[in-house]
Amino acid sequence: MKKREFIKRAGLVAALAGFGLTLESCSEDEEPAPTGGSGLTVDLSVSPFSRLKDPDSWLLHPDENILLVNVGGSISAFSSACTHSGCTRDWTFSGEFICGCHGSRFNTTGQVTNGPATSALARISVSREGDVLTLG
């Protein structure tokens, strides 16, 4: 970046910061940090998590940026931060995860099936003991 461009952007950032605003990018080059986490537990006997007992069900964790999916009785978890633009809370599921921000699609293993995203969702490890899942 040239000095003039840097000064121009720095001035814009400073002005926006004064109003409490930030610049966000829609770049495919930036991958958001995975969220979700380390030792978080989910009780499948409690709503809304109880629906994950049904094969082919899914859930966006109500308090964390985590997508959960039950495929044939096996539950997987992924960061809900879309690898295209970082959107975390605008998801639907129809056999695959669909980010509502720009239409990227991911299969139930987290792999991209349709862009603009180019990299997979970050997988979160899941262990299960009875009705309790431990994530991360």
Automatic annotation (TrEMBL):
<keyword id="KW-0411">Iron-sulfur</keyword>
<keyword id="KW-0001">2Fe-2S</keyword>
<dbReference type="GO" id="GO:0016020">
    <property type="term" value="C:membrane"/>
</dbReference>
<protein>
    <submittedName>
        <fullName>Rieske-like 2Fe-2S protein</fullName>
    </submittedName>
</protein>
<feature type="domain" description="Rieske">
    <location>
        <begin position="44"/>
        <end position="135"/>
    </location>
</feature>
<dbReference type="InterPro" id="IPR036922">
    <property type="entry name" value="Rieske_2Fe-2S_sf"/>
</dbReference>
<dbReference type="GO" id="GO:0046872">
    <property type="term" value="F:metal ion binding"/>
</dbReference>
<keyword id="KW-1015">Disulfide bond</keyword>
<dbReference type="Pfam" id="PF00355">
    <property type="entry name" value="Rieske"/>
</dbReference>
<dbReference type="InterPro" id="IPR014349">
    <property type="entry name" value="Rieske_Fe-S_prot"/>
</dbReference>
<dbReference type="InterPro" id="IPR017941">
    <property type="entry name" value="Rieske_2Fe-2S"/>
</dbReference>
<keyword id="KW-0408">Iron</keyword>
<keyword id="KW-0479">Metal-binding</keyword>
<dbReference type="InterPro" id="IPR005805">
    <property type="entry name" value="Rieske_Fe-S_prot_C"/>
</dbReference>
<dbReference type="GO" id="GO:0051537">
    <property type="term" value="F:2 iron, 2 sulfur cluster binding"/>
</dbReference>
